[in-house]
Amino acid sequence: MSEFRYLPVTEDDRREMLDVIGVQSDEDLFSDVPEKIRFKGELKLEPKLSEPELVRFLTGLAKKNVSSSDYPSFLGAGIYDHYIPSVVDSVISRGEFYTAYTPYQAEVSQGELQAIFEFQTLICELTGMEAANSSMYDGSTSLAEAALLSSGVTRNKKIVVSETVHPEYRQVLATYAHGRRLDVVTIPEKDGGTDLQALEAAVDDSTACVIVQYPNFFGQIEPLKEIETIAHGVKKTQLIVASNPLSLGLLTPPGEFNADIVVGDCQTLGISESFGGPHCGYFAVSKKLIRKVPGRLVGETVDEKGQRGYVLTLQAREQHIRREKATSNICSNQALNALASSVAMNAFGKKGIRELAEQNIQKAHYAVKQLKGNGISVSSDHSYFNEFVIECGKPVSEVNNALLEKGIIGGYDLGKSYAQCKNKMLVAVTEMRSKSEIDQFAEALGGIIGG
Amino acid sequence: MDNQNQPLIFEQSKQGRTAYSLPVLDVPAVPLAEMVGKDYLREKEPNWPEVSELELVRHYMALSRRNFGVDNGFYPLGSCTMKYNPKVNEVVARLDGLTHIHPYQDEKSVQGALELLYRLQENLQEITGMDAVTLQPAAGAHGEWTGLMIIRAFHEANGDLKRTKVIVPDTAHGTNPASAAVAGFDAVTVKSDENGLVDLEDLKRVADETTAALMLTNPNTLGLFETHIQEIAEIIHAEGGKVYYDGANMNAIMGVTRPGDMGYDVVHLNLHKTFTGPHGGGGPGSGPVGVKAELEPFLPKPLIVKKEDGTFGFDNDRPQSIGRVKAFYGNFGINVRAYAYIRTMGSKGLFQVSKDAVLNANYLLKRLSDHFETPFKQMCKHEFVLSGSRQKELGVRTLDMAKRLLDFGYYPPTIYFPLLVDEALMIEPTETESKETLDAFADHLIEITKEAINTPELVQEAPHQTVIGRLDETQAARHPVLRYVNQ
Q1: Residues B52 and B169 in one domain
Q2: What is the phi/psi pair of residue B192, to 5°?
């Protein structure tokens, strides 16, 4: 009996197959690997586990983690604890979807292709843009690729980005920009928003794009109207907006402010936190940029009989055709996460996305009221969505330790990314937090910070 | 498969239906106008559908029936390693303590996740023969670019700014030159010789003091082992360049040889290929990068480390790091699956995987070699390339044969790649397929070669059994319709 349940070749099979090939042994199949580089002995890996042992072992590791299903979480900063309808996991667990690859052979991939076409449509509708691709790795790489696209189209090398854009997104942008030899200019944060005067001063004829986040990293709703005027005040400069898609159920979509590219991460719509991934970057553009988009696009067409069908299209942009001249090197993307997000978006529908977004903003505002009531100073006084900044008056790590002891996952330590934000905590309140959890959080914080 | 055309979800919408359920808002509601400025309050609803939960489920079940995965049947898509995706991996990856955890939680509240990642790093180091591994890159191409950025940082740190060139073989996957470009290099091609291996003379001609790196998978894209790999590495190293291992073909060599022992300096792995992360209809993948010690300072940050007190944490203090390549720590869920797979197989099992993958490929090659032109005569590794040139003379293209395979219930091989083989069919059976499956596939493909002689139109007009016929790709590209618009 085989020792390995995934390996069907029996010893009888092996003998017959080696006979047909015309060699004596397995070893002969590797005679082209020079002796000098052959690995001698056995790889020193961890010992093999049976299925029950594996499940027990990994369950043990999982239990060493504090999960947001056990503890109410007020931690956001780009990844959030949101409601995921049960249908999502049911759909993405179908082997036809998750064990397939990129739908090259359209005739046996219509399911995936149609699902992507629907995803593209959902993203366009939400962002107010003309076209969206089938997904990017995550919000951060989607943002970086948007900057590269802008630079390519405008032939300008200056990328202007607001400091209120997610710090890790900006770090990823910096790595990509270094690769393509672009210059990144960062506009300082002012009162939780982008310093518009500094922005205006920075944008000039050499600027490829202005990048802002809406709502921004501090939860604040950036004034896209004014920002757009500044960005498009220069002839070629493009406006790139990074946006939490869930917030767009309530907020005017960036497309209505003439954004050229809208990017972000669909984690907030149907994808679990998963320690940071896999999630799903989205990438949406205005009509004039359709042929410059990175990654896969699905288009509608017909077969010989005139039946409607879907195919991968405009592939002349992509690496497998254009090689070093491709718009991007992306190949594998986040298709299954895009599917998960599509299922969630379809489950919510036009009414649900609004209700979700409204519950988020209402609960966040209620939390602010309760925190203030418990003597906490709240720094966010501009318009914010589901996140805001509070003053801890002591190291945030200390506060979070105390919260964890009370069974609460506290917020993000802004001092880690912003020198000007020492002892400030970014708090996220989603629809998942009940009134009583918010009340307990406010009370606990009142005790920890006040005391 | 289901022959009914499935309407778009938007076409099934009916006002008033819903498929979600939230608790009633339990906090006092504030008027929206008090929270959001007038210009920023959305007026027009997105045209998202309104369907019931059952309608939603049936829609996706209908779509799933119009899709083909490894669970449905044989999927010999060359270069993609479409092996079985173990079910237990899906179970453990969905454990509550692995899915509902936040990357910014305090280290002490995510020790299990960090320990798992650390263990995976250690195992991957051993498998590849490298000194350090980052799990941050999200996919193979992302790993390639990360590896090249590391090499660039290394040269820059040495003040060696003249290295503008990355050499790729003419058989390379398109991501190689594309990644080189995104990393700020010029891609330069080295030719293959008549045996399908890197032409050493041409390599010597191309390699010089401006060479930053050579990117080379081994076995190469033709499924052939680069027997002269040490000599190749020496040529590049002598010029001061680095040698980059594209791990797309790692499935052929686990426990047989290691990139680190062959002379490679940097390697990326495709955990969604060799290590059973499912392909997901196009992703997510995971593309860890391993490096030799001298390149370790340049790895993306943070790295996951084991501290002196035995706990696990992040190392952010890496001044020479290339920075971040992705927010957070990579595609964690895929890394969990890869770890589960490695623990399921152990070292003996992974060695057996490579032996069986190579056995299956050589067996299938032998079964087919009388019926196709075989451009290379030596033994293959985990995959092989045939040419449909003989059939092309009969008026039957490789594309036609691929479409005909659909009628027999197979996903076709990779076709028209690598580019230097005329009418290429690139076949990778993987180790998880049985001899019976390989025999049946060979029989069907041989039957198709006979059809190409006797009833060519049957092949030229294929597929005949699928839910839809060949689609008009020209129209799709000329008049792109990329979204549904409500008429």
Answers
A1: no
A2: -95, 150
pLDDT at A136 over 60: yes
Q: Output DSSP code: residue A219.
A: S
Q: What is the CATH number of the domain that holds A102?
A: 3.40.640.10
How close is the nearest chain A Cα to the Cα of B429, in Å?
13
Tell me, yes or no, whether A225 lies in a domain.
yes
Domain count, chain A: 3
ipTM over 0.90: yes
**Residues A271 and A360 occupy one common structural domain:** no
Of A32, A181, A294, A200, give the one whose Cα is nearest residue B184: A181
User: Do residues A95 and A202 both lie within one domain?
Assistant: yes
Euclidean distance between CA atoms B292 and B285, whole angstroms: 23
Same domain, B42 and B182: no
Do A421 and A298 belong together in one domain? no
Residues B95 and B19 in one domain: no
Q: Is A20 on the interface with B (CB under 8 A)?
A: yes
Query: How far apart are alpha carbons A117 and A311 in whole angstroms?
Result: 9
- Count of Cβ atoms closer than 10 Å to residue A109 Cβ: 29
- pLDDT score of A324: 87
Residue B77's closest CA among B427, B402, B315?
B427
Q: Identify the pLDDT of residue B82.
A: 98
Q: Do A300 and B88 touch (CB under 8 A)?
A: no
CB A149 within 8 A of CB A294: yes
**Tokens 């995976």 identify what position?**
B120
The residue range of the domain holding A31 is 11-57
| Matching residue, tokens 């839809």 | B468
pLDDT over threshold 80, residue A22: yes
End of a domain among A344, A369, A392? A344
B1 contact A CB<8A = yes
The residues, any chain, with a CB within 8 Å of residue B275's CB and separated by 6 or more, are: B269, B337, B338, B341, B342
Same domain for B184 and B226, yes or no, is yes
List phi, psi (to 5°) of A320.
-70, -15
Crossing angle of helices B435-454 and B332-368, rounded to 10°? 60
Considering the domain architecture, whether residues B219 and B138 belong to the same structural domain is answered as yes
Q: What is the mean pLDDT of residues A306-315?
A: 95
- Do B40 and A325 count as a contact with CB atoms less than 8 A apart? no
A231, B45 Cβ separation under 8 angstroms:
no
The one-letter code for the residue type at A162 is S
- The pLDDT confidence band at residue A382, using thresholds 50, 70 and 90, is confident
As a whole number of angstroms, the distance between CA A134 and CA A142 comes to 12
Query: Among candidates B421, B410, B330, which has minimal Cα distance to B82?
Result: B410
CA of A203 vs chain B CAs: smallest distance (Å): 24
> Environment class of residue A291 by beta-carbon count within 10 Å: exposed (0-12), middle (13-18) or buried (19+)?
middle
Q: Do A277 and B112 touch (CB under 8 A)?
A: no
Distance CA B20, CA A262 (A): 27
Residue B466 lies in a domain: no
Nearest CA in chain A to B1: A108
Structural domain range at position B50: 9-65
pLDDT along chain B (487 residues), means of 10: 78 98 97 97 98 98 98 97 98 98 97 98 98 98 98 98 97 93 96 96 98 97 97 98 97 98 98 97 97 98 96 96 97 98 98 98 98 95 98 98 98 94 97 98 98 98 96 96 91
